[in-house]
């Protein structure tokens, strides 16, 4: 059992994309700020460490006196916030969270520890004596930033250190102070974005509402009103679709009306002949009426077949194109009509041999050839000739079907392509044959022309179709040997007077 496709909301998608982009930008900004804060804090704390080191070194030199053996007491411990009761005792606690993070040692040049601010520091130099500048050291699992300064005149060295985790803690505090307000603002931003996207897609809802209120048969264009530029392509595509639907509906209505009209007459005739057969008083009268019923049924069957063929051409008939050997299609249709032509004493003359390929739909091309040949046999002169010429003219394939019958008056040649149009005084046909031929030619991107047959008598139907890429080189139909296909008579197939190349219609593609 197939699962129904999940419906994705445009509003939800936009909201997720905008929120995601916003959060991503926030995270990048916070990360940047955190890294920059750590760098700036490192500079700031190093400057503080250097300032404190100079103070310690100056005060220690003042308190030292003339003898290095004198313990540093008095003002140094008081000024730096440390006890002066003993040089190695810790200074009392402080209420400030960062005050006790700064400690120092005072060493003499001969390696004696003169003073240190806390017992947390080892009694050995934090950094080997004699080194100068900033250093990073780890003592009992705690990282320290150490600055070493010296007073060569007094022969003392100060090692001032500060816990390194204080810097990371302050940087994290800065980042957290930025992150918390952003986290609080995120739901508010989400609500504002939801309202904004709802307002943004409101024109889509208006368009959907306009379409949903229409009747099934309402294919008028959308109302002309200002629309966002993003909706203009959609509205244009919908208008195009509605216009195609309108033409399609009009075509179907006209086709249905024409078909109903054309079927009404033969059905009424069948009913009449059936009633005559039922009321016949003699076997001969009954047999004649039943014969009329059979012939009427044949005509009706032919009409229905033509209607179905025409209806099949209305959708996208250009699908399913392939390379088709048009010569083989012609031979197949000639064989199918041989019996009917023989019954009328007619013969087929086929000119042009070899493989002639066109790109098209084989069943439709077979219908095209069949309709041309049926028209030529049924309306040609009894005992006459139907000539079929096939060849290439440049990059196109030329097909001509010529008979020597009554032909079509020039004034009627444009109208014979209309559905159900019959020539005055000529009955028996459905009026759809040439309409089907013209539609198939149109589907294949070709052209069709009507002209006079040999010596101005009969009809010449000329068709040009795009040739397939694999087709052989140009073939001149007049230079090809003829093949008489009628079993009763074979002719030379010599072209008659008045023949010429197939002439495309003015509106046909080249």
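^ structure tokens above, recovered residues below v
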């Amino acid at each position: 059992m197939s699962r129904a496709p999940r419906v994705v909301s445009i509003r939800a998608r936009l909201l997720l994309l905008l929120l995601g982009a916003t959060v991503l930008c926030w995270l990048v900004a916070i990360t940047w700020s955190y890294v920059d804060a750590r760098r700036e804090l490192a500079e700031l704390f190093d400057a503080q460490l250097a300032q404190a080191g100079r103070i310690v070194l100056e005060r220690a030199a003042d308190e030292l006196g003339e003898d290095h053996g004198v313990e540093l007491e008095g003002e140094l411990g008081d000024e730096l916030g440390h006890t002066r009761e003993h040089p190695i005792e810790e200074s009392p606690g402080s209420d400030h969270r960062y005050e006790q993070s700064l400690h120092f040692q005072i060493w003499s040049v001969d390696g004696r520890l003169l003073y240190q601010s806390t017992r947390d520091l080892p009694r050995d130099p934090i950094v080997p004596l004699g080194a100068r500048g900033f250093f990073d050291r780890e003592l009992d699992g705690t990282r320290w930033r150490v600055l070493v300064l010296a007073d060569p005149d007094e022969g003392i060295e100060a090692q001032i250190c500060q816990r390194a985790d204080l810097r990371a803690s302050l940087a994290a505090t800065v980042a957290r102070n930025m992150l918390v307000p952003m986290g609080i603002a995120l739901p508010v931003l989400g609500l504002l974005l939801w309202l904004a996207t709802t307002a943004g897609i409101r024109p889509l809802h208006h368009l959907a509402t306009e379409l949903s209120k229409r009747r099934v048969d309402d294919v008028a264009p959308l109302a002309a009103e200002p629309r966002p530029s993003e909706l203009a392509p959609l509205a244009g595509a919908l208008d195009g679709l509605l216009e195609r639907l309108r033409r399609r509906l009009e075509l179907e209505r006209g086709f249905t009306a024409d078909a109903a009209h054309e079927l009404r007459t033969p059905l009424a005739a069948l009913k009449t002949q059936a009633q005559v057969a039922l009321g016949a008083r003699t076997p001969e009268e009954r047999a004649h009426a039943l014969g009329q019923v059979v012939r009427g049924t044949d005509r009706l069957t032919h009409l229905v077949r033509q209607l179905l063929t025409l209806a099949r051409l209305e959708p996208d008939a250009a699908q399913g194109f392939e390379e088709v050997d048009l010569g083989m299609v012609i031979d197949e249709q000639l064989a199918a009509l041989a019996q009917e032509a023989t019954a009328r004493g007619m013969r087929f003359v086929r000119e042009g041999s070899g493989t002639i390929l066109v790109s098209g739909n084989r069943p439709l091309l077979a219908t095209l050839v069949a309709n041309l040949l049926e028209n030529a046999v049924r309306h040609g002169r009894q005992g006459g000739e139907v000539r079929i010429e096939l060849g290439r003219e440049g990059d196109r394939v030329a097909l001509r079907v010529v008979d020597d019958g009554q032909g079509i008056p020039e004034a009627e040649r444009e109208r014979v392509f209309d559905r159900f149009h019959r020539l005055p005084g000529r009955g028996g046909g459905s009026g759809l044959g040439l309409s089907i031929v013209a539609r198939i030619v149109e589907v294949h991107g070709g052209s069709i022309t009507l002209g006079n047959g040999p010596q101005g008598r009969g009809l010449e139907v000329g068709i040009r179709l795009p040739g397939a890429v694999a087709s052989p080189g140009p073939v001149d139909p007049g230079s090809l040997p003829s093949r008489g296909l009628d079993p009763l008579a074979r002719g030379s197939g010599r072209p008659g007077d008045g023949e010429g190349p197939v002439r495309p219609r003015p509106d046909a593609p080249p």
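Residues 10-90+98-172 form a domain with the Beta-Lactamase fold (CATH 3.30.450.20).
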